[in-house]
Specification:
22% helix, 41% strand, twelve-stranded mixed sheet, disordered N terminus, 5 helices
Length: 206
Amino acid sequence: MSFLKYILGLVMILGSTLSLPASETADGMLKKATSAINGAGGLTASFTLDYGKQKISGTLKAAGKKFTIQTSSTSTWYDGKSMWTYNGRNNETTLMTPTAQEVAEANPLSIVNSYSSSFTAAFAKSQTKGSKTIILTPKSKHNGYQSVHVVIPDGSTFPSKLIVVPSSGQKVTVTISQVKRGQKLPDITFVYPRSKYPKAEIVDLR
């Protein structure tokens, strides 16, 4: 092989190597997940929450930072500032201005939505076929979490499972399904419907 052919061959090899897509990073995947959560319009989804021996199913409606969560016993509305939680067992509604952690406890997707300010992201050493697991490690020991595992199916940008381990150590697993994006959700969706619960006592903690 002549020197010129050698150089041309080397250039072709380098060119094909450089044209390959860069390996996906954990941070890059989470940024795509954040974009999916905050995409145009709102989203609706079903979820199952496993907490100790308890298992609760419900529905989620969200648009940006706003959300509504309904289960068989409680319902929560968050309009980006105030949060109302209705407890059907005692017909009582709590109204509060929540902290970031309280918002995350009500809606774990908000952890993904704002992960970059509070966590560092890295791929889990052990991966399950068909998905990627990303571990979020808190930047501060005082943010209330040990870790958060985010599972994103291959070919998707939306999380299918969140495993939240708070400082208390009691693991909470949230499995998300039937996600529909691009939903038209008016602002009233995220405000407590007082007329629906006329006899509920409102406890104002603001």
